[in-house]
Amino acid sequence: MSDNPTVTVMGTGIMGAAMARNLARAGYDVTAWNRSRDKAEPLAADGIRIAHTPAEAVQGADTVITILYDGPAALEVMKQAAPALDPGTRWIQSTTAGTDGVADLAAFAADHDLVFFDAPVLGTREPAEAGKLTVLASGPNNDPAANAVFDAIGAKTVWTGSDGADGSASRLKLVANSWVLVLTHGIGEVLALAEGLDVDPQRFFAIIDGGPLDAGYARIKGGLILDGATERTSFGLDTAAKDTRLVIEAGRRAGVRLDLAEAGAERFRRAAEQGHGDEDMAASYFASFEQ
Predict the structure, then answer these.
(1) C-beta of residue 54 within 8 angstroms of C-beta of residue 110
(2) Which DSSP state fits 95?
């Protein structure tokens, strides 16, 4: 790693913006790019350079991080950046791309002699902003520069393989996401039923408190629902719907029937139709009621 390591973050949504800020705090020279430039502009206050184009963003970068909507979006942005990419540049692919998507990204990396890391992350707004994400990584795990980047954005790195092209990190991310989705829809239905049956939801939380049925993530999402604060987006409903599709598609290719994921996709669809697509995914709660 150079004396003044440079990192480019492509995609400055909730996760990407937090990553960029934590990298800047860790002493990196950070450049950011986002398709909607206005979403990247606030990062300038943190000493982060805002690029106009993907090619400008990656010029001279030691490491490029992509954290975009999906695999095709990441591939399209990297194609735009290709003329300015130097062979040997580390590419940390943190987009939730799914199994097919990550294969296409790995092929692009091979064609352009990039050092490829499949490294999606687990976490929402709060852990991202605190630099406490969990990084799921597949790639050359003895690379000190990549490890230093992971340490700057996360509290833990879980290595799943030594070849980013094997897609093992993205497969683990899909498995983890399936659990997150079950918890999110589960607490939404629980609280909807409590409302319908005129049961104080705090009584439900009291009976599971500290026991094997308790779940911290469900409490967080449940808190947003009870506070009427699903507009405080930690992980967007529309993005969660996309991730659900990736989980379902992966299951189908593997011959696995995912009934809960299918039902969850329908709940997200109904909630989005009711106008909650830009809210936190906890807003799937509203799918339990007729508009």
Answers:
(1) no
(2) S
Look up residue 84 and give its amino acid: A
Q: Which two tokens stand for residue 175?
A: 């498995």
Q: And the tokens for 181? A: 């989705």
For residue 109, is pLDDT > 90? yes
**Of the candidates 141, 144, 125, 142, the residue with the CA atom closest to the CA atom of residue 133:** 125
From residue 291, alpha-carbon distances to 119, 152, 274, 275, 287 in Å are: 39, 44, 7, 10, 9
CB atoms within 10 A of CB 115: 18
Count of domains for the chain: 2
Instruction: Name the pLDDT band for 110 (thresholds 50, 70, 90).
Output: very high
- Please report the pLDDT score of residue 4 as a whole number: 79
Does some domain include residue 180?
Answer: yes
152 and 214, same domain (yes or no) = no
Q: How do residues 208-250 score in pLDDT, each as one tens digit?
A: 999 999 999 999 999 999 999 999 999 999 999 999 999 999 9
Cα dihedral sign for 171, 175, 178, 184? negative
Distance between CA 11 and CA 89 in Å, rounded?
18
- Residue 291: pLDDT band (50, 70, 90) is confident
pLDDT band at residue 97 using 50, 70 and 90 as cut-offs: very high
Counted residue by residue, the chain has a size of 291
Are the C-beta atoms of 116 and 105 separated by less than 8 Å? yes
What are residue 280's DSSP bridge partners?
236
Q: Are residues 227 and 284 in the same domain?
A: yes
Rounded to whole angstroms, the Cα distance separating 204 from 183 reads 15
Residue 3: pLDDT band by 50, 70, 90 thresholds? Answer: low
